[in-house]
Specification:
With about 120 residues, the protein is mainly β. Helices cover about 0% and strands about 50% of the residues. It contains no helices and 11 strands. Strands 2, 4, 5, 6, 9, 10 and 11 form a 7-stranded mixed sheet that branches. A 4-stranded antiparallel sheet has the order 1-3-8-7, with no helix packed on it. The protein starts with a strand and ends with a strand.
């Protein structure tokens, strides 16, 4: 099976930046569509961004467009989320996810594999 491990979370002031990483193992990473989701206390899990296997097609939720960038390095089996201009409302546990095929990149139910999550806290 695919194992996913997130890293790079932490505490940052509003307006600052963080880069999350998701290291994958166990399967051929380059074959998977990858996504980032987040969940804040008391809220539903929310789609953030996704990227196809080739890395030439990306999707973002409206609230992060222009601020976040999803990317992947298939040679390193690693997914990234560069987060700039962070806002307090970005505070959440961020999860990376993987699936071999997806019809809707924003649908969490279509992702087969999930990491444990990484906490991102943005102070005001």
């Amino acid at each position: 099976q695919v194992q996913l491990v997130e890293s790079g979370g932490g505490l940052v002031q509003a307006g600052g930046s963080l880069r999350l990483s998701c290291a994958a193992s166990g399967r051929t990473f380059s074959e998977y569509t990858m996504g980032w989701f987040r969940q804040a206390p008391g809220k539903e899990r929310e789609f953030v961004a996704a990227i196809n296997w080739a890395g030439d097609s990306t999707t973002y939720t409206d609230s992060v467009k222009g601020r976040f960038t999803i990317s992947r390095d298939n040679a390193k089996n690693t997914l990234y989320l560069q987060m700039n201009s962070l806002k307090p409302e970005d505070t959440a546990v961020y999860y990376c996810a993987a699936t071999l095929w997806v019809s809707d990149r924003g649908d969490a139910k279509q992702y087969a594999y999930w990491g444990q999550g990484s906490q991102v806290t943005v102070s005001s």
